[in-house]
Specification:
Helices cover 21% and strands 22% of the residues. The chain is of the alpha+beta class.
C-alpha cells in the first residue's frame, strides 16, 4: 500500500479572531445546494472550544487523532469498556 503525506503548505489558511488553536480554509461554496466545504487545522495537544454543529458535517482526521471522538466512542460503549478492563 502506498503511503501519502498530506502537505498543507499551499493551503491559504485563515484565522478566526479569538481562536488561537484553529485555522481554516474554505474549499468550495455551493450556493444552490447550500453546502460549504471547509477544512480545519487544529493545534496539537490543545483543547478546542466546546461547540455544537447546526448542520450535517463529516469529520476526516488527516494526521493525529480526534480525542473528542475517542472519548465519545469510549463513553458510548460501556459493555465493551468493562470487557477490556476484565482482560
Amino acid at each position: 500500500m502506498t503511503r501519502y503525506f498530506f502537505d498543507d503548505c499551499n493551503i491559504k489558511w485563515q484565522n478566526l479572531e479569538g481562536f488561537e488553536n484553529l485555522a481554516y480554509s474554505i474549499l468550495n461554496i455551493d450556493e444552490y445546494n447550500k453546502i460549504i466545504d471547509v477544512i480545519f487545522k487544529f493545534a496539537a495537544n490543545k483543547q478546542i472550544v466546546l461547540h455544537r454543529h447546526l448542520a450535517l458535517n463529516n469529520t476526516f482526521v488527516i494526521r493525529g487523532e480526534s480525542l473528542f471522538l475517542r472519548k465519545l466512542l469510549w463513553a458510548s460503549l460501556p459493555n465493551k469498556r468493562q470487557k477490556l478492563r476484565d482482560r
